[in-house]
């Protein structure tokens, strides 16, 4: 096996090991012996894009949690991939076992639409639950997030194609093409991941946020490394 193909195989192996923990499925159960509802819908029933709770961008999200014992407070968090934003929190006094938090959808999705993850958790008697929220609104490519993602995807693909073009005059491809292919591949992957979320095809999970850009960056690297691609094709 040639040295370029060995390097490419090592890159694939390293990326796979690095992304392995991110591929683990998220806990899909309401924990702590409690119930959590979002807009009156049991959170346990909304753990996939197809079962996401649909709301409009101007709606208010109502999260209600009931614990098996007294609670002291609660938190409602909106999550987007690796990032979480505390949308609502409160203190509960007495021996209450139920809490209610409301969140204005527009405060957290003002730049786009698509699928988001809403989490609710109590303190005191600890329990938590989550559900996917599908925000309906303008056509995704007309939003700020969708438009920028579309431009990034097109620019990234164009750059990857440019890196794959044979150099003029029969010159060696050189390291510059591989670097260019990787950078534009990363850009295309970031744009593609956001578009998948904006069009409600997939939620922005850590795996999507990291895995898609890394994967397209490796494709861009391979496109700028034609000898490795040729050897790989011949080995198949």
Q: Can you walk me through this structure?
A:
With about 240 residues, the protein is of the alpha+beta class. It folds into two domains: about 120 residues, no CATH class; about 100 residues, Distorted Sandwich (Coagulation Factor XIII, Chain A, domain 1). The chain is about 40% helix and about 25% strand. It has five helices and nine strands, in the order αβββββββββαααα. The strands form two sheets. A five-stranded mixed sheet has the order 3-9-8-5-6, with helices on one face. It has a four-stranded antiparallel sheet with strand order 2-1-4-7, with no helix packed on it. The radius of gyration is 23 Å and the shape is elongated. The N terminus is likely disordered.
- Radius of gyration over all CA atoms, rounded: 23 Å
Could you give the order of the helices and strands?
A: HEEEEEEEEEHHHH
Provide the β-strand percentage band: 25-35%
Number of helices: 5
Task: Describe the oligomeric state of these chains in a short phrase.
Answer: single chain
Which class best fits the helix and strand makeup?
alpha+beta
Number of strands: 9
Quickly count the domains. 2
> Distance between the terminal alpha carbons, to the nearest Å?
12 Å
Poorly predicted ranges: 1-29
- The proportion of residues forming helix, as a percent range, comes to 25-40%
* Overall shape: elongated
């Amino acid at each position: 096996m040639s040295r370029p193909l060995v390097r490419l195989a090592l890159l694939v192996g390293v990326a796979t090991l690095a992304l392995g923990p991110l591929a683990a499925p998220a806990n899909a159960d309401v924990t702590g012996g409690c119930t959590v509802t979002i807009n009156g819908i049991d959170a346990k029933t909304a753990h996939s894009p197809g079962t996401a709770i649909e709301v409009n961008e101007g709606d208010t999200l109502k999260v209600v949690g009931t614990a098996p014992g007294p609670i002291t407070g609660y938190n409602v968090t909106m999550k987007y991939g690796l990032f979480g934003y505390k949308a609502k929190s409160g203190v509960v006094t007495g021996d209450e076992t139920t809490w209610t938090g409301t969140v204005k959808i527009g405060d957290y999705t003002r730049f786009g639409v698509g699928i988001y993850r809403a989490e609710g958790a109590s303190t005191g008697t600890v329990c938590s639950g989550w559900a996917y929220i599908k925000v309906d609104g303008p056509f995704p490519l007309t939003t700020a997030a969708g438009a920028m993602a579309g431009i990034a995807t097109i620019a990234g693909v164009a750059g990857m194609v440019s890196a794959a073009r044979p150099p003029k005059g029969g010159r060696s491809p050189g390291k510059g093409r591989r670097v260019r292919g990787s950078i534009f591949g990363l850009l295309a992957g970031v744009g593609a991941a956001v578009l998948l979320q904006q069009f409600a095809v997939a939620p922005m999970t850590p795996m999507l946020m990291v895995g898609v850009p890394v994967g397209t960056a490796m494709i861009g690297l391979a496109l700028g490394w034609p000898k490795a691609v040729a050897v790989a094709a011949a080995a198949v």
